Amino acid sequence: MTTATLAPPAIAAHGVTRSFGDVKAVVDATLTVPHGSVTALIGPNGCGKTTLMLMLAGLLQPDGGTISVDGHSPVSDSAAVRNAIGWMPDQFGSWDNLTCLQTLTLVGRAYREKKEYARQRGLGLLELVHLSEFADRPTRVLSRGQKQRLSLARALIHDPQVLLLDEPANGLDPRSRVELRQLVRELAAGGKTILVSSHVLSELDEMVDDAIFMSKGSTLGAETQAMVADARTKYRVEALDAAALLAALSGYGIAAEEIEGGAIVRVADEPNAVSLLAALVRDGVPVHRFAPVGSALEQTYMAMNEERR
């Protein structure tokens, strides 16, 4: 009988540290990101997110700890890590006089792709990020949001297995943000692993499978995971007759936090939410709103209250 060997995570870090002089940017970062998943990296400005992502990308060496990306160490095997990852920084640096297609072709050539293949790959990616009309226009004419989309295409040019996206929604209009969410989920469904840092927490809720929180240079573990799980049990229920709603909830033995026009209740999971709504409708309660209480990630972030400490 053979014993199956579990595949290592796509990204793993343990006890990672990094200082800049007397400033300790990353104190203790420990995380794992499974293959084919979308994971959020969340924390306030200055908590060390970008420094951590730069180390994962092999662009900054850690002072201590270990990192593995697609089975390779950015410290000892940086070339393998560069081939494995697509890096999208929070600020898009470009050659202003190059066209969008020339930019992607040049980056493809840097990854040793043949020129014509890199060009065709670039055309396909420009179509993917809805920039085909700008293929032959210089990057300097792009808006902030368009540059973000080109930056994502650039990160994908060599078909990496791991994507590190630092604030990818910055500057995007609402439609582009929806398209970004859809594209990220499609990439994950295709087997890519994605670690995304963003302050747009309500959108991350619809995009990610898991979340890692950072505070003062350290990743937070089980406590924040429990907070996220708890936040996802909260539902807001409103009815035209609030008294009837509260009476029904009491009759079901469900504790309720009374709010104007309704109540906040805790529901274990979606099947239980369906059952509760069905019971209220069956009992004639005129429910006009029944939904989760906002973003679970946002609720957890605010509960951490990091920026006010």
SSE order and pairing:
Elements: E1 11-20, E2 23-33, E3 38-42, H1 49-56, E4 64-69, H2 78-84, E5 85-88, H3 100-110, H4 115-128, H5 144-156, E6 162-166, H6 174-189, E7 193-197, H7 201-205, E8 210-215, E9 218-220, H8 222-231, E10 234-239, H9 242-251, E11 256-259, E12 262-266, H10 270-282, E13 287-292, H11 296-304
Parallel strand pairs: 3-7, 3-8, 5-6, 6-7
Antiparallel strand pairs: 1-2, 1-4, 8-9, 10-12, 10-13, 11-12
Helix pairs in contact: 3-4, 4-5, 8-11
Polypeptide structure, described:
The N terminus is likely disordered. The protein has 11 helices and 13 strands. It has 309 residues and is an alpha/beta fold. 38% of the residues lie in helices and 25% in strands. The strands form 3 sheets. A 6-stranded mixed beta sheet has the order 5-6-7-3-8-9, with helices on both faces. It has 2 domains: 210 residues, P-loop containing nucleotide triphosphate hydrolases (Rossmann fold, 3-Layer(aba) Sandwich), CATH 3.40.50; 76 residues, Alpha-Beta Plaits.
Fill in the keyword field for this structure.
Alpha-Beta Plaits; 11 helices; Rossmann fold; 13 strands; 2 domains; 309 residues; single chain; alpha/beta; globular; 4-stranded antiparallel beta sheet; disordered N terminus
The helix/strand order is EEEHEHEHHHEHEHEEHEHEEHEH
Span of the ends, CA to CA? 55 Å
Would you tell me the overall average pLDDT? 90
For the biggest sheet, the summary is: 6 strands, mixed
Top-tier CATH class of the largest domain: Alpha Beta
Nearest-angstrom radius of gyration?
23 Å
> How many structural domains does the protein architecture include?
2
Beta percentage is 15-25%
> Segments where pLDDT lies below 50 for 5+ residues?
1-5
- Write the CATH homologous superfamily of the largest domain: P-loop containing nucleotide triphosphate hydrolases
Question: Which topology of the largest domain does CATH recognise?
Answer: Rossmann fold
Walk across the major sheet and give the strand order: 5-6-7-3-8-9
